[in-house]
Please model this.
Amino acid sequence: MKNFKIEDLITLLKENDIKRFHFVFNQKDQKIEASHEVLNNIADFINKDTRDFEQHEGMFFQLTHKYDVLQGAFVHRTKRGQAAGGVRFWQYENLEDFLRDGMRLGKGMTHKNAMAGLWWGGGKGVMIHNPKFDKNDKQYREYVYSEYGKFLTRLKGCYVTAEDVGTSVEDMENIYKATRFTTCIPEKIGGSGNPSEPTSRGVLSGMEAALEFIGETLEGKTVAVQGMGHVAEPLIYHLFNKNVGKVIASDINKDVVETVKKRFKDKNFDARVTKKGDNSILFEECDVLAPCAVGAILNDDTIPKIKAKIICGAANNQLEDHDKHDIALAERGIIYVPDFLTNRMGIVNCANEQYGYVNDDDFIERHLTKDWDFSVYKSTLSVLNEAKEAKKSTSIVAIKQATELSMHLHPIFGHRSIEIIDSLVDEKWYE
Ligand code: NAD
Model:
């Protein structure tokens, strides 16, 4: 499939007059089936894959009439409710990378939502930017996102979208013009707003749980933070409120470093500008390391040089290779708090946005307490304790716990989204 370029797929779709298509899991035969015969070889590829494919309930696609943008909704598991997760606008060279990314991200949302105790299933939207057009062109974006909204309406809500990498609140507004099945709409029209502050408190809770696990607290500790953006800045504020001894931070953006430095000028705060690719912050002498910039920074190169005893941050997909780097960290005795436990507040903040906005909403705040069973704090402790007992990596245990939770049926709707998916297939939604 690596040789199957996105342009080849678009040509194939056009030659066969296909505007929309799907790959849906047939529960009886236990395999993915394509909506169109000419796409059977793609279904075969998915069925054979054991890395990213995991009985995804349905994957739906459309090619936009203008601009040739391929848009997808990867619905993984909906037992806890409709699939919820953000939509990203990204560039892919080949079909395999696109499908793998969508399937992996959809599955990741199932884990994140289930572990957070949300009554939502997991799914992800992925759209392929067409490099022939300017990604920042207003007309292009308006069209692409409003078409995505129409696409979601056709899918009858088995997937509910949200903001993600490469997607802005304005883009979400364009989706909202064409569908009710979205969250993260602008605050001025009832949206939930920027989740970065609650996300920073989620990371703080994860750190406190990891320290509690080894009988310590944040007081007097040194914390190194990679990135000084929307999550990291409030995180640094909360860390000083917890009386940490020192915070060391880095960012590739000089202006960001200057602004944050000014804010904490009276604190024991050491911040520096780094070049892209300079990961020296990860190797600082510190107690806790908080990756809050980019993913894949825990890898063969960096892990041997890390001195922190705990890693707990907001960045998505911190492990470059989920199958081996969590084990490499465990072997070095480093406690890794899986990112999807601590950075959940993004989805928590917007997932129930359609019910309106409440100040100090208990449904959000309870994630940041120490007593609710699904709080970041308790989930983290539960994962760390089980990992220690079972002598397994924290990532493996967190995924195991999340998978079990993802099998629980929504208390009111049951497995309603699978009925929606069945109806889409029966009614040939793609015609
Ligand atoms: P942001 O863009 O506001 O901040 C990221 C900062 O990292 C920027 O200032 C950027 O200049 C800096 N940066 C980029 N590459 C770097 C590098 N190699 N070294 C040092 N600094 C670098 O993003 P954010 O909202 O603060 O999110 C941070 C991370 O957390 C991202 O990976 C994001 O996907 C993840 N996340 C955020 C939320 C949220 O609520 N904002 C929720 C879940 C996950």
Observations:
- The mean pLDDT is 96.
- The chain has two domains: 6-194+419-427, 196-398.
